Automatic annotation (TrEMBL):
Biological function: Small subunit of the glutamine-dependent carbamoyl phosphate synthetase (CPSase). CPSase catalyzes the formation of carbamoyl phosphate from the ammonia moiety of glutamine, carbonate, and phosphate donated by ATP, constituting the first step of 2 biosynthetic pathways, one leading to arginine and/or urea and the other to pyrimidine nucleotides. The small subunit (glutamine amidotransferase) binds and cleaves glutamine to supply the large subunit with the substrate ammonia.
Name under which the protein is recorded: Carbamoyl phosphate synthase small chain
UniProt: L-glutamine binding residues: S46, G220, G222, M248, Q251, N289, G291, Y292
Keywords: Amino-acid biosynthesis, Arginine biosynthesis, ATP-binding, Glutamine amidotransferase, Ligase, Nucleotide-binding, Pyrimidine biosynthesis
A Gene Ontology BP annotation from the UniProt entry: 'de novo' pyrimidine nucleobase biosynthetic process
Record-linked PANTHER family: CARBAMOYL-PHOSPHATE SYNTHASE SMALL CHAIN, MULTIFUNCTIONAL TRYPTOPHAN BIOSYNTHESIS PROTEIN-RELATED
Record text on subunit structure and interactions: Composed of two chains; the small (or glutamine) chain promotes the hydrolysis of glutamine to ammonia, which is used by the large (or ammonia) chain to synthesize carbamoyl phosphate. Tetramer of heterodimers (alpha,beta)4.
Pathway terms, separated by semicolons: Pyrimidine metabolism; UMP biosynthesis via de novo pathway; (S)-dihydroorotate from bicarbonate: step 1/3; Amino-acid biosynthesis; L-arginine biosynthesis; carbamoyl phosphate from bicarbonate: step 1/1
Record organism: Ferroacidibacillus organovorans
Lineage, opening ranks: Bacteria, Bacillati, Bacillota, Bacilli, Bacillales
Gene name of the encoded protein: carA
Length: 363
């Protein structure tokens, strides 16, 4: 068993055992409270550049199966668990978590007090940090951490290079891939959509060349405020076709409508965040993964109305344009991991496309 260390930017050090690959990795250290869904978390491109700690103490107990991936590879830059299951069991599993991390070069650590780590992150807010299997002194490693300039555009790393089409008999939808999860693709194809998944930096003209009837913007990694070019493109498409945004897509739609985003102290990452739909007062249990949020006071001079709020901290979870067909949510209606309570939002999007088309029936 090889020793590994997790070191936070304030010098706090946790000593544990290496899982996955060996070496040193840097990133923003965040925590996820889901009891299951570790494979979906690892392969969610929104975690690109982040070291993810799972708060549930036993992770990996049902192994890893390729069918459960939300993209082609894990994107988290590091993985932290209290205990990685040595003897997982599931009839579909193909490998252990440890083997999977090794196969993809992900550096991880187990055997540390993840509860204490989470308390530190909750108290001080999200911090940068590193996982290492090297014996270098802390001061040297922290120097390297400081030198590792924060990558500002993770979306460029995770988006598709070229557009690809998943033909379907129904409504034609362009899905802007800011770091898309497979279940967003599945949720649209399951509704018969003729889907074109496009690179994040596609221009208005490139998008409209497909003659889409709706535009979806996916989730994605990093700070939404860095993505001003994409915000401009979205602004130029407002009112042209119905728009639906998820998570990063929600933040970008809000920015395009004149709102602002801000960073939460430690983010929302888990599968049981209660969200209230203000239109019917129903509360949904939602899957979440975000560090930024739309600033409430920035909405007053915008054409957006708040549709959803977080029951835990009152933060904004959804907005809708007052006049144009554009709406978005901060949580993940595509789930994976997490409950699919809010899947109805994909149906709302389909209805809006039909309304714009004049109410004709569609597949
Ligand atoms: N999952 C997401 O789309 C996250 C959006 C953004 N990267 C945030 O952390 O808030």
């Amino acid at each position: 068993m090889k020793k590994a260390r997790l070191i936070l930017e304030d010098g706090t050090e946790f000593v544990g055992t290496s899982i996955g690959s060996e070496g040193t990795t840097f990133g923003e250290v965040v925590f996820n409270t889901g009891m299951t869904g570790y494979q979906e978390v690892l392969t969610d491109p929104s975690y690109c550049g982040q070291i993810v700690t799972m708060t549930y103490p036993l992770i990996g107990n049902y192994g890893v199966s390729v069918n459960d991936s939300e993209s082609l590879r894990p994107w988290a830059s590091g993985f932290v668990v209290r205990e990685a299951a040595d003897h997982p069991s599931h009839h579909q599993m193909q490998m252990t978590l440890d083997t999977y991390l090794q196969a993809h070069g992900v550096i991880g650590i187990e055997g540390i007090d993840t509860r204490m780590l989470t308390r530190v992150l909750r108290k001080h807010g999200t911090m940068r940090g590193l996982i290492t299997t090297s014996d270098e002194p802390v001061s040297e490693l922290l120097g390297q951490l400081r030198e590792t300039a924060e990558i500002r555009d993770q979306v460029a790393q995770v988006t598709t290079n070229t557009p690809y089409r998943i033909p379907g008999p129904g409504r034609r939808v362009v899905l802007l891939d800011l770091g898309v999860k497979m279940n967003t693709v599945r949720s649209l194809t399951a509704r018969g959509c003729d889907l074109i998944v496009m690179p994040a930096y596609s221009s208005r003209e490139e998008i409209l060349a497909w003659q889409p009837e709706g535009l979806m913007m996916s989730n994605g990694p990093g700070d939404p405020a860095d993505l001003f070019d994409i915000v401009e493109t979205i602004r130029s498409l407002l009112g042209v076709i119905p728009i639906f945004g998820i998570c990063m897509g929600h933040q970008l739609l809000s920015l395009a409508c004149g709102a602002k985003t801000e960073k939460l102290r430690f983010g929302h990452r888990g599968v049981n965040h209660p969200v209230r739909d203000l239109r019917d007062q129903r509360v949904y249990i939602t899957s979440q993964n975000h560090g930024y949020v739309v600033a409430q006071d920035s909405l007053c001079d915008t054409p957006l109305e708040i549709t959803h709020v977080n029951q835990n901290d009152g933060s904004i979870e959804g907005v809708m344009h007052r006049e144009l067909r554009a709406f978005s949510v901060q949580f993940h209606p595509e789930a994976k991991p997490g409950p699919d309570d809010s899947e109805y939002l994909f149906d709302d999007f389909m209805k809006w496309i039909d309304e714009q088309r004049g109410g004709a029936a569609h597949a």
